[in-house]
Amino acid sequence: MEVSSKENTHFFSNNTILPVDRSSFKSESSASKEKQACCGGIKIFLGALSFVYFAKALSGSYLKSTITQIERRFDIPSSLVGVIDGSFEIGNLLIIILVSYFGAKLHRPRIIGAGCLIMSAGTFLIAMPQFFMGRYRYERFPSTINSTVSLSPCLQDKSQTPLSALEKSQAKINAGCEREAGSSMWIYVLLGNLLRGIGETPIQPLGIAYIDDYAVEENAALYIGCVQTVAIIGPIFGFLLGSLCAKLYVDIGFVDLGKVTISPKDVQWVGAWWLGYLIAGLISILAGIPFWFLPRHLPRPEGRKDSSTSSEHSRFITEENKDQGTSSWQQAKLAEMAKGKSLEINPAVIVSLACFLFLLFCLADFLPSLKNLFGNPVYILYLCASIIQFNSLIGMVTYKPKYIEQQYGQTSSKTNFVIGLINIPAVAFGIFSGGLIMKRFGVGVVGAAKLSLGSSFFGYLLLLSLFAMGCGNSEVAGLTVSYHGAKPVSDHEQALFSECNSGCSCSRNDWDPICGENGVTYVSPCLAGCRASNGTGKNTVFFNCSCVGTFESSQSSSAVVGPCQKGNECPKMFLYFLVISVITSYTLSVGGTPGYILLLRCIKPHLKSFALGIYTLAIRVLAGIPAPVYFGVAIDTTCLKWGSKRCGGRGACRLYDSSALRYVYLGLTLVLGTVSIFFSVAVLWVLRKKSSPQDETLSANGERGTCGTKSRKDNFVNSDQLIQSTYWPEKETRL
């Protein structure tokens, strides 16, 4: 009986196998075509998104490279430049919630394309003041500009100056005052950067979500990793572009460069900062074009057509339905009632009902999730450590070009070149090394906390050595040394005047430095007591300078245009600084990936996206916005000589106290870093207390977000999370 039944079954299966094969062949053929269309579409989107990431990283890093150029061009202090730099984060925060929520319901590629257009418009707006505020004017003695009028730098009597020259000079000053009095052109730079932040908002949340929705599940992590890798290349080209533009004079193409009497080594030099923004804006436009031709939806891969796949979103819905079945049923019932009666009620009732449902959702889901998240001690401690650490890193990187220029006497061009070609690759290699160590040694959560802590500890320890790698102050008569070679009095404004220039009609507000043959810099030819000059432009030589002759080490009384170079030890110190800076950048970056993995593993799976959103929001609000401002305020306190605007008022700083700048800049960075290390130690202590010796990896279960041991499958992050972890907010700040 059994044999006959088996034979019947075999006969039945043989009879039915042919039609099944035909249908399967057709389905396989259509599936292969659909798979090819899907893969082709997602790869086009991947290439376009990678180019957008490159464009936004390039423009953001280029802004960092032009901080000192903007400060000098608009004659503003460092604190105000910090406000301009933080405006990008403000613009991003203005619409990030709206874009993240409503963007997923609309045409995501076109929203990204519109964001690129807004970002390019903001970039162009930053450059616009260059074309409306007139030519750049720097302080120079008239004889170095106009060879037709011979003037004595030391004007003992104004009658020796031709009346026509005085009238023309005064007329130009008055005209400039009228123009400057009605405009503060730096506001356009701030608004442009704000607009850049608004345009950049949809790129990351919508772009990454689009890839995750339509890519094959096993390829999604690889695609996201490729996008983040391209994002690292952007800052390299951004700083290199800043280096190139800093070599060019600000008004190139509008003035005769042969008549420019300052060089890139002069503190009044301003490069063609606006040119890079035009290039970056054009790149942003090109990056946004493909998104206008991409479809709203792509064919889903065969394995992901069912919405019940093991995505985080599906798990979240499943778990919430299990935990809060009654609440979800009631909310769904209310939604059905609203839909069913939408035709019978007026729009005001619909709006009211929508607001009520939204409030009900917040009370039923948002607040408990927030309470659960903030009840997790590991998450809270790591969040505090990250906020404080990013304050130190963002402030340090924002003013790193200024520090190198002022401390080591380097030009803006060389500074940007060094940062782009040396520091940023070290950061990228550090990020990769951190992920490689995690994978190679199977590091658990406690191990990730140790690695992150060790990275921060040794990184800031290396940073401590930079205190010994500074240059002394330049010898500037009346500011850092007296006119006789001794240390000056505390009142720098009064110390600018001495017996050697008492017979001259000089202004303490001028900054037109000259270098005496004694190696001392003088604030202006007048304050140096120079009575005669010869030559024009950069080749001007001053003679009979009474203050140069009275200096104890002087053998001559002549001087040339421009400040004197710093001491001979500075080039060597700058080389040491570069070596330590690169090692520090690498060391700090190694801990980025383990820290991010720690953040992912110590929270419940269904709270992961919410926790990352709160983390990013806190970093932007509490670190990205305030850090450049208070770092700038602290740096302003080290200024020895402020410039003066044409119509009066304080302008940009012309000379910093090198020692004070070093202690303030590095000291503030180290203090914040040390505080963050204490929080990291607390994180490790809590983790060790919660974990058992047999299993140091943690699972997100238990009350109030405490992490306990669970199955090994839940303890280790999957490959998708590991590759995504190569990116964290403001990663380019780890320089």
Automatic annotation (TrEMBL):
Keywords: Cell membrane, Disulfide bond, Glycoprotein, Ion transport, Lipid transport, Membrane, Transmembrane, Transmembrane helix, Transport
Alphabetical list of InterPro entries matching this protein: Kazal_dom, Kazal_dom_sf, MFS_dom, MFS_trans_sf, OATP
Gene3D superfamilies registered for this protein in UniProt: 3.30.60.30, MFS general substrate transporter like domains
Reactions this protein catalyses: 3,3',5'-triiodo-L-thyronine(out) = 3,3',5'-triiodo-L-thyronine(in); L-thyroxine sulfate(out) = L-thyroxine sulfate(in); L-thyroxine(out) = L-thyroxine(in)
One of the GO BP terms on file: monoatomic ion transport
Region (Disordered): 301-324
A GO molecular function held by the record: sodium-independent organic anion transmembrane transporter activity
One Pfam match: OATP
Family: Belongs to the organo anion transporter (TC 2.A.60) family.
Protein name: Solute carrier organic anion transporter family member
Organism expressing this protein natively: Emberiza fucata
